[in-house]
Design a protein that fits this description.
The chain is α+β, with helices and mostly antiparallel strands. It has helices at residues 95-101, 111-131, 260-263, 297-310, 325-339, 387-390, and strands at residues 47-54, 76-82, 85-94, 145-146, 150-152, 170-174, 192-198, 203-206, 218-221, 271-272, 275-276, 286-289, 320-323, 342-345, 348-351, 363-366, 369-373, 382-385, 391-395, 401-402, 411-415, 422-438, 445-448. Among the domains are: 139-223; 291-371, no CATH class. The chain is built from six helices and 23 strands. It has a six-stranded antiparallel sheet, with no helix packed on it. A six-stranded mixed sheet has the order 12-23-18-13-17-16. 32% of the residues are buried.
């Protein structure tokens, strides 16, 4: 008897648990919580925070027999400005998707309720990715090869690769200079979605073809030109804005949120929150050059010593390290080598015990600092930050909230632009309006140009 004759009556058995195969982590940004340094209730007047450059006062020898005292001086202050960045994540479901999945007899996944319950978690992941950014909104370096629907990031000196990308992410493709955004073949209005990532070969696949794509092109967060500069920009003198009270096209010259790589930039000619870095040299972060060598404890101690010299030993309190996985492995190897060296003493030779930081955990110790592993960190770089003491947020409202239409509804019908009639599609989402603010990058440091095994 042919199997084909009876399959029509067969019942399909489906497991009642779905398996998530996408990564889901906001572990580093979770350390940068709203705190006492958070700037609340921001407006188009922005936020100006003062910096005390020195206390002043004149010290000098004087003649107590009718002589003059040294002429006094006062303290010197400067200031920086913080702004905010709008960001939204929206979802769309069709009436049929809702109808087919809204009861357990029809489906093991209720699409609408699941997205409404878990969608905000994706905002937290976006938040983590932006924290590792440089203010341009870029998510990659230049691609090494492309097709109309794929991009490869496998250049020998590309230490970022696909670390900041995720499946399901809506993005844009820009040329190598960040001046031209590539158009889509169809649909022209997108969105361009990453539907697959080959993390062995660093190949990204899109849902549709990109027009004019070429090797060297880069991937960025979606719509970086929607509000603000038309090219991908960071470190601009126009950020946050000299015309904030009148501009309708954004707060100024930078494209996106100012993460760690914006704060930790030792280029003295670039701008930091409205001031050229060379004007405030002690606010330029300390850079320890790895010079193509593997990370050592001496590099971390060099950074700490230079911080002590610039500020005082108290500046170390609260510093944490953010390591890529490969550099964390190098630190482990250093500990293992040290631990297995024979120790000579008056009672004979012995072997040191294995160090305590070689377990595969998310945190470990390095130069007396608690360090965290981040999958989004460039492989040739380690950053040391002080999230509780030195970082805050400039925000229009606290955290992330559901987007509401003018009637206060958190879901809305999609309207056909040609007829004005509602479509059988519903949208909803979340939004935020803030920027990361590092109040004193000069009290932090980073190690760059490390060897990558």
């Amino acid at each position: 008897m042919a199997i084909a004759n009876i399959v029509a009556a067969q019942l399909e058995q489906v497991a009642n648990v779905t398996v998530d195969i996408f990564e889901d982590s906001e572990q580093i940004s979770a350390l940068f919580k709203r705190n006492a340094r958070t700037i609340k209730n921001l407006s188009r007047y922005l936020y100006r925070y003062p910096i005390k450059l020195y206390r002043g006062g004149t010290g000098g020898k004087y003649n107590a027999n009718g002589g003059a005292l040294p002429p006094g001086t006062s303290m010197k202050l400067s200031s920086l400005q913080a702004g905010y960045i709008y960001y939204a994540r929206t979802y769309r479901v069709s009436d049929e998707e809702v109808d087919l999945t809204n009861n357990t007899k029809a489906s093991v996944v209720d699409v609408l309720s699941t997205l409404m319950a878990e969608g905000v978690d994706e905002m937290a992941v976006d938040d983590d990715i932006a924290l590792h950014g440089d203010g341009t909104g870029l998510l990659t370096n230049g691609s090494s090869a492309v097709s109309s629907t794929t991009m490869t990031f496998a250049a020998a000196d590309d230490y970022l690769g696909i670390a900041m990308l995720r499946e399901g992410m809506a993005v844009d493709v820009w040329d190598s200079t960040g001046a031209t955004k590539r158009a889509l073949t169809t649909p022209a209005d997108g969105p361009l979605v990453i539907i697959a990532i080959d993390d062995t070969n660093n190949i990204v696949t899109f849902n549709t073809a990109v027009t004019g794509i070429t090797a060297g092109d880069k991937i960025a967060f979606k719509d970086m030109d929607a509000y603000g500069p038309t090219a991908l920009t960071t470190g601009s003198s126009a950020w946050p804005a000299t015309n904030a009270l009148t501009s309708e096209t954004g707060l100024g010259g930078d494209s996106f949120r100012h993460g760690i790589r914006y704060a930790h930039d030792d280029n003295s000619s670039s701008y930091f929150n409205g001031k050229q870095r060379s004007v405030l040299p002690k606010m330029i972060p300390i850079k320890v050059n790895g010079e193509g060598q593997q990370i050592t404890f001496a590099m971390g101690m060099d950074g700490l010593d230079r911080l002590d010299k610039r500020r005082n030993p108290g500046v170390r309190k609260g510093l944490i390290g953010i390591f890529p996985m490969n550099q964390r492995s190098v630190v482990q190897d250093i500990g293992v080598v040290i631990a297995n060296k024979p120790i000579q003493g008056k009672f004979g030779d012995s072997v040191d015990m294995a160090p305590s930081n070689i377990d595969q955990t998310q945190t470990f110790e390095y130069c007396g600092m608690t360090c965290h592993v981040s999958k989004r960190q460039p492989q040739n770089r380690v950053d040391f930050v002080n999230p509780s003491k030195n970082w805050g947020r400039a925000e229009l409202w606290p955290g992330t909230r559901p987007y509401k239409d003018m009637n206060g509804n958190t879901t809305w019908r999609v309207v056909d632009t040609s007829t004005g009639l509602p479509k059988t599609l519903t949208e909803f989402g979340w939004h935020s309006a803030y920027d990361f603010v590092c109040f004193d990058p000069g009290s932090e440091f980073y190690i760059d140009n490390l060897a990558v095994a």
